[in-house]
Amino acid sequence: MPEVLGALTVTVVPVDADTRDRYGNPTALLGTTFDLTGCNLQQKTTEEARGEAGTTVTEWLLFAPDPDPEAIRARDVIRITAAAAHVAPDAGETYATFTLEGEPDHLENIDGTVHHLELTLRRSQL
């Protein structure tokens, strides 16, 4: 049983890199989501861009038990209940969407078994 790192449950939405929308962006595979329980979320940075439309970009670090070494990939999306992340929800939803920045970091015990994952997340808001 994976170690519990916190009280947060997040939803992983795998993204199919080969299927693109009309703008060339990878599209999410609907119906294939899975939850990770026992997670901890920490905000790292906030950057505000002021221009015609002000945008705020926040970077986060998610500590999670390792479900499977191949379960989470660099292009996947993470959904977190907005109240649990202390952020505004996506329009019309109760969750906030975060993009995964790069591959998950698999941190190991001294015997080589994976202890937990560290995932860098990013969220952009207008």
Short description:
The protein is mainly β. The chain contains one helix and nine strands.
Describe the fold and architecture.
- The protein has a six-stranded antiparallel barrel with strand order 1-4-5-9-7-6. It has a two-stranded antiparallel ribbon with strand order 2-3.
- The chain has one helix and nine strands; from the N terminus they run E-E-E-E-E-E-H-E-E-E.
- With 126 residues, it is mainly beta.
- The chain has one helix spanning 82-85, and strands at residues 8-13, 15-20, 26-28, 34-49, 55-64, 77-81, 95-100, 105-108, 114-125.
- The chain starts with 7 loop residues before the first strand and ends with a strand.
- Strand 2 (15-20) and strand 3 (26-28) form a beta hairpin.
- The chain has a single domain (8-125), classed as 2-Layer Sandwich (STM4215-like), CATH 3.30.2000.
- The model has no long low-confidence stretch (mean pLDDT 83).
- It is globular and about 50 Å long.
